[in-house]
Amino acid sequence: MIQLLYFASLREALGIEGEALPLPEVLNISALMALLAARGGAWQEQFAGTRPLRAAINQALVANSALVQAGDEVAFFPPVTGG
Amino acid sequence: MIQLLYFASLREALGIEGEALPLPEVLNISALMALLAARGGAWQEQFAGTRPLRAAINQALVANSALVQAGDEVAFFPPVTGG
Amino acid sequence: MTVSVQQADFDAGEEIRRLRLENPEAGAVVSFVGQVRDLNQGEEVASLTLEHYPGMTEKSLTAIITQAQQRWAILDVTVIHRIGTLQPMDQIVLVAVSSAHRGEAFNACEFIMDYLKTEAPFWKKETTSSGEHWLAARDSDQSAKQRWHE
Amino acid sequence: MTVSVQQADFDAGEEIRRLRLENPEAGAVVSFVGQVRDLNQGEEVASLTLEHYPGMTEKSLTAIITQAQQRWAILDVTVIHRIGTLQPMDQIVLVAVSSAHRGEAFNACEFIMDYLKTEAPFWKKETTSSGEHWLAARDSDQSAKQRWHE
Q1: What are phi and psi of C25, to 5 degrees?
Q2: CB-CB neighbors (< 8 A) of C21 in chain D
Q3: Coil/strand/helix, residue C2
Q4: Which residues of chain D does C113 touch, with a Cβ-Cβ cutoff of 8 Å?
Q5: Best B59, B61, B72, B81 residue to mutate vs chain D (most D CBs within 10 Å)
Q6: Burial C37-60 (b: 16+ CB within 10 A, else e)
Q7: Does domain C2-149 have CATH number 3.20.20.70?
Q8: What pLDDT is stored for residue C34 in this prediction?
Q9: What letters, b where the CB count within 10 A reaches 16 and e where it falls short, cover A6-27?
């Protein structure tokens, strides 16, 4: 299992803050996004790669090539706008 | 006449804060310094060009080529160290 | 270093004073205070809501400060970032840096702000007369960060 | 702009707050506070006396701020510089700049400090256990100023 978290406009578009997801195999962020996009609707819209999304694994920013492993906390969110 | 002012370590070395000086002719800062150095002693020591001195005419920093004219307020001082 | 993510307002003057007085060898304290502007791109702002990623936010800010400490001889850093709903002219963020000489504090303070703007997980949602909308990241913030790699 | 040369201490927090609240379009206030260090080049400092050139000081600071205003889109500037005899950890100087976006305020604040250090007619005399001596100008301050011409 992995813990998924969604923030800001992404959270609002998907309508959920997060979920636990069984991990079929070790995959990278791009593959995980493809898996989520395949749910269709808002998921397709958000994860199909047309919108700028950032990902963090265990609370550290990562590139889309980073590998996700069982037990990881994986967060997706739009580019940050603090400060 | 011009009004001469001396500040900081220069003031202390000369022992005066300032003086009124008859101006023999229009001259530049370098020539004025040579005139003051010719007084000998501490004046020679301070104005002979071996120490870094800055000059201001009418409260604006100037180069040594700047011309001094009757009625001017001319200040000499070491490089500034505020802030 | 002090890092705080909080709803409550802060006293910038008190934080600067603390950085000064706790560091007698400090000749300089440089600080940045960000406030909610009353207008954004011509529209009047009624309120601004800041969301963040609890846990990651503090880690991210700590990592940014650590990078600044490795890069410059600085003495101490305080970062306070507010979350929740703010009004125009409310303070959003404080970054304050003490150092022996001013150049280091200026560089480190601006570096921390540039990285905070592009890496720390905060998101702003603005409420104006036309409704609510999430702010988009600014390209100028990315280029401000890129400068530090040159 | 506000320029003050004074013996009295100042409240940096209050000055920053004033710059913020008088400029609702300001997103950023960057400030520099200088304090008397307890040690200078290894020697314990008992006190520091600041002499200045009355009249020229205010003109010089005003001219420096005007240059910064011509160079960057800044909203307001406050400069306060103390004179007279100060103790370690006393505040010496405040430069605070407000602007819509942070880059301008950072640049203008550092520019004003770099020029103040090399052009404004202030001189520091330090009292240590070895006696009184006038501080020498630092080459690093000249090179800090030169950067702005590049």
Answers
A1: -85, 0
A2: 89
A3: strand
A4: 102, 106
A5: B81
A6: beebeeeebeebebbbbeebbbbb
A7: no
A8: 98
A9: bbbbbbeebeeebeeeebeeeb
The DSSP bridge pattern shows strands C43-52 and B73-77 to be unpaired
The helices-and-strands tally (H runs, E runs) of chain D is 4, 9
Contact (CB<8Å) C121/A81: no
Bridging pattern class, strands C28-35 and B60-62: unpaired
- Mutation to test the D interface, candidates C15, C106, C107, most D Cβ within 10 Å: C106
Q: Which of C66, C69, C79 is nearest to C122 (CA)?
A: C79
- CA atoms of C76 and C99, how far apart (whole Å): 7
Amino acid at residue number C42? G
CB of D74 within 8 A of CB of D111?
Answer: no
Domain chopping of chain B, boundaries: 2-77
Kindly report the CATH number that applies to the domain delimited by A2-77.
3.10.20.30
**Can you give the pTM of this predicted structure?**
0.95
Domain locations along chain C: 2-149
Mark which residues 32-71 of D lie under 8 Å from C by CB. 32-35, 37-39
Mind listing the pLDDT tens digit of every residue in chain D (150 residues)?
999 999 999 999 999 999 999 999 999 999 999 999 988 777 888 999 999 999 999 999 999 999 999 999 999 999 999 999 999 999 999 999 999 999 999 999 999 999 999 999 999 999 998 899 999 999 999 999 999 987
Residues of B in contact with D123 (CB under 8 A): 7-9, 77-78, 80-82
Q: How many Cα atoms sit within 13 Å of D87 on the Cβ side?
A: 2
Q: Between chain B and chain A, are at least 3 CB pairs below 8 A?
A: no
Selecting from B56, B59, B80 the residue whose C-beta is nearest the C-beta of D123 gives B80
Angstrom distance (rounded) from CA A75 to CA C32 = 29
Nearest-CA residue of chain C relative to D105? C32
